[in-house]
Structure formats: structure tokens, C-alpha cells
Fold:
Amino acid sequence: MNYLNKNFWKGKNILITGINGFIGGNLAKQLVDHGANIIGISNTQVKNKFLEYEGVLSKIKLYKVNIVNQKKLEDIIKQNSIQICFHLAAQVDVNISKIDPHETFETNIRGTYNLLESLRNSKTIKSIIVASSDKAYGEYPLNKLPYKEHYDLRPIYPYDVSKAAADMISKAYSTDLFKLPVIITRFANIYGPGQLNFTALIPDCILALLRFRKFIPRSNGRNKRDFLYVKDVCDLYMCLSFNLYKNNRFRGEIFNAGTRTGYTVDSIIKKLCYQTNNKSLYNDIKKTFLNKKTTGEIQHQFMTYFKINKFFGWKPKYKLEQGLLETYNWYANFCNKNDYKEFINNKLIKK
Ligand SMILES: NC(=O)c1ccc[n+]([C@@H]2O[C@H](COP(=O)([O-])OP(=O)(O)OC[C@H]3O[C@@H](n4cnc5c(N)ncnc54)[C@H](O)[C@@H]3O)[C@@H](O)[C@H]2O)c1
Structure:
């Protein structure tokens, strides 16, 4: 694959917003392995446990900056002659967005136009990938799924609206008016090593399997979701970024990605529990779904990778079962190390 060629990535100055997060951490690791200079910004403590655990922290440059601070963004972009950017910073916690929509709108919408405005003034930038989400589409009936890139965005809940707004703003910057080299991604749910936000389904279930705490249901288990493995997502980001860098005609393109399968939440938990020989936990969790109502969230979502495949021949390498097992094993090792066990316990106490 051309996009994995180290000669391309070696020495490139790459900005990752939200580097302290799950996908930012995984992508930084992958790009460091390819010889890139990684510059990351994040508003939280400047130490990412995943990057520390994986031994990557000392190989990247980090800034603690709130993405709403445009002046600082501009300075960082200029000082580091940024050539490639992955915009991943966002307030992603759906529970927080239901309680504090303002912070979600500030970070996800204002943060996005601040960043794009700062990049507009850059002389070195050649490729910007903005992470939108399947949530931007809003609710469509099951017979209209999987989503297609040309579907209207019609979200109603705060997180979903914030992603759709950022998505449309990014498209505006890519037009002939501004000619910013932007590609927008709308991916399905992502899972894998380093997802240390325990309100997400798969880490939540794994923590219960590893006996850190009880599983906390957010739905009745019957809603359908599509899941992409994070290593496939990093591969995809590199594929899109490389192609946009090489060819400006991809400016303004939007790409969905998912596996084309809607798995019920219940079936994901069942797979994880059965793979790890814990059928009794599955039976306990199943009981918690009874009478649980889902509010403020889209019912069913899944996507294809049809367009990316048509453009670049890309397809996911990981089957769900393989990704789940790798993820479980990563958490089991991570949680076994004393420092990290303590980190998780502290995180759970703070919640
Ligand atoms: N995880 C998924 O399933 C998924 C699916 C589709 C799209 N996405 C999108 O991918 C991106 C990354 O998601 P993730 O799962 O890694 O999330 P994450 O919460 O793990 O990471 C987000 C990062 O953004 C940073 N951040 C938050 N507010 C900030 C602010 N005001 N200023 C600077 N940094 C700030 C956080 O510190 C964190 O490092 C997001 O844009 C998300 O909407 C995620």
C-alpha cells in the first residue's frame, strides 16, 4: 500500500488535535512508527496513559491547549510548520452532552472553526482530516440503512448536532471560496486498545469482565451499532491523508466507514462474555436490560466502506471477533500493571 510507505511519512510535521484521546493516541503511535514528527494538542493533563504504556510519550511533542484558543492554535501551527492535520479533539461523552450541551457545542463547533481558520493562514498545510461521525446523520429508519454519504444530515440530540455542525463548517472551508484541503470522515463506533472512556460499551463490558465494576447499561440492548477496530481506523486515516496530500482533487470529499453490519448491543456483550468464558456475567447483564429505556440517542446505525473502497481500494482487515479478543487482551495486560490498575480505579471513583 502506497500510503503505508515510510518514505512518505518520515519527517512530516503532523498535528493531531485530541492526542490524549483514544483514537489520537493510537494514531500517534502508528505515525511515530512511520517516522513522522508528531505534535499533539489536548486540553487535559499532558500525559496520555495509552501513549505512556506503549512507550510513545517521549517521542512526541505535546501542548496543553484548549481548542477554543485560536491564537495559541495559530502559533503552534506556524512554529511547527504543520503539513498534515488530523482533527480529533471533541467532547465525545454523550452523557455529558445531555447535561452540558454548551461545553459540547463550544468544543466541537467553535473548536472546529477556530482550527480551520488557523490552518487557513498556514502556508505549509496540505492535508486536513476532520473526524465527523455517523451520529451527524441523525435518525433514519432501519430500511434506509446503511447510511450513504449523500444523505441529509438531520440530527436532533446535542452531541449529534455538534458533529453535524462541525461537519458542514468543514465542508464550507473546503469549497472554492477557501480551498482548504479538507476531507471529512463519518465513521461508525470505534473500539480497541486505549479507549479509556469507560462510558463506551466495549470498555465498560471489559471492565465488568475484569471485575473492576458492574456493567452500566445505557439502553435495552436491542439498539444496533456498527463497530470498526481502531487499527483499521488509523489505517484509514493514513490512507485518506496520504491521498489528499498527493492529490488536491479529493478536497471536500466525505467518507463513511463501517463494516456494513448492525450488531445489537446485547450481541456484542454476548460475544465478549462467551469469548472470555464468562457466560454468567452475560446472563447478569441481560437482566439489567429489562425495563431499561434508551433516551437521547439514535436507535440503529450502521455504514459501509463502499465509497472508500471505490476510491482507494480500502477495506477493513479486522473481523469483529478478532478485534474484540485483541482488545480484551490489551485491557487485561494494562490493568494487570499496578500503576495502571490504580489509574483505572481512580478514574472510576471520580465518575
Ligand atoms: N470513538 C468513536 O467511536 C468515534 C466514532 C466516530 C467518530 N469519532 C470522533 O473521533 C474523534 C476522536 O474520538 P475519541 O474516541 O478518540 O475521543 P476521546 O474523548 O478519547 O478523545 C478526544 C480528545 O479531545 C480532547 N479534547 C476535548 N475537549 C477539548 C478541548 N476543548 N480542547 C482541546 N482538546 C480537547 C480530549 O482531551 C481528548 O484528548 C472525535 O471527534 C469523535 O467525535 C469517534
Notes: The longest helix spans residues 101-120. The CA atoms of residues 70 and 114 lie 5 Å apart. The chain is about 45% helix and 15% strand.
